[in-house]
TrEMBL record:
One GO molecular-function entry: copper ion binding
Domain Cytochrome oxidase subunit II copper A binding: 92-225
Name used for this protein in its record: Cytochrome c oxidase subunit 2
UniProt cofactor note: Binds a copper A center.
Keywords (A to Z) from UniProt: Copper, Electron transport, Magnesium, Membrane, Metal-binding, Mitochondrion, Mitochondrion inner membrane, Respiratory chain, Translocase, Transmembrane, Transmembrane helix, Transport
Role summary: Component of the cytochrome c oxidase, the last enzyme in the mitochondrial electron transport chain which drives oxidative phosphorylation. The respiratory chain contains 3 multisubunit complexes succinate dehydrogenase (complex II, CII), ubiquinol-cytochrome c oxidoreductase (cytochrome b-c1 complex, complex III, CIII) and cytochrome c oxidase (complex IV, CIV), that cooperate to transfer electrons derived from NADH and succinate to molecular oxygen, creating an electrochemical gradient over the inner membrane that drives transmembrane transport and the ATP synthase.
């Protein structure tokens, strides 16, 4: 999870998030090169006497600064489109979870376990135990296996919400009357936190999401739910 004074992104826990971090670094390097080039040109403009009249009609220069930005945009667009299509792939998920947004809590349904349904509320400060995180911990966590493709079906019962877990690279809108889906495969066990990322009313900031990811062998021994 994020910590104070953090500059970079959270550590990746899924292949999609690893790709997003790689693309972020790729785009950032291009931005650094563009900024350096522009600052260098400004420095030369301010410190050099403009006595050369040959640059008043330079077709080659105009051709370069027209084609070069187009090449840069292609270098950014191609990996971006690749990741975009990767996030939409659904390849035979091992488990399907339905998440329903409410004002202001989440309802989860394990459709592969006889329709097990439970609500997940933020823990009030008076109920926090040592080690719990204020405004981030919930009474009922979502327990999921690692190294298995998980499909999340996300919708809402009242207003717009957004189901987001940054370390997994997930952010999907919960829209009333519409069922959106997203998939992920976690690579490391642990407890991962997210929040509603769509302004949904007075208590929008009190809709945390907590995923407890455990090894697949332990999950297969039987449902381990923190109810």
């Amino acid at each position: 999870m994020a910590h104070a004074a953090q500059v970079g992104l959270q550590d990746a826990t899924s292949p999609i998030m690893e790709e997003l971090i790689t693309f972020h670094d790729h785009a950032l390097m291009i931005i650094f090169l563009i900024c350096f080039l522009v600052l260098y040109a400004l420095f030369l403009t301010l410190t050099t006497k403009l006595t050369n009249t040959n640059i008043s009609d330079a077709q080659e220069m105009e051709t370069v600064w027209t084609i070069l930005p187009a090449i840069i945009l292609v270098l950014i667009a191609l990996p971006s489109l690749r990741i975009l299509y990767m996030t939409d792939e659904v390849n035979d998920p091992s488990l399907t979870i339905k998440s329903i947004g409410h004002q202001w809590y989440w309802t989860y349904e394990y459709t592969d376990y006889g329709g097990l349904i439970f609500n997940s509320y933020m823990l009030p400060p008076l109920f926090l135990e040592p080690g719990n995180l204020r405004l981030l911990d919930v009474d009922n966590r979502v327990v999921l296996p690692i190294e298995a493709p998980i499909r999340m079906m996300i919708t809402s019962q009242d207003v717009l919400h957004s189901w987001a877990v940054p370390t997994l690279g997930l952010k999907t809108d919960a829209i009333p009357g519409r069922l959106n889906q997203t998939t992920f495969t976690a690579t490391r066990p642990g407890v991962y936190y997210g929040q509603c990322s769509e302004i949904c009313g007075a208590n929008h900031s009190f809709m945390p999401i907590v995923l407890e990811l455990i090894p697949l062998k332990i999950f297969e021994m039987g449902p381990v739910f923190t109810l």
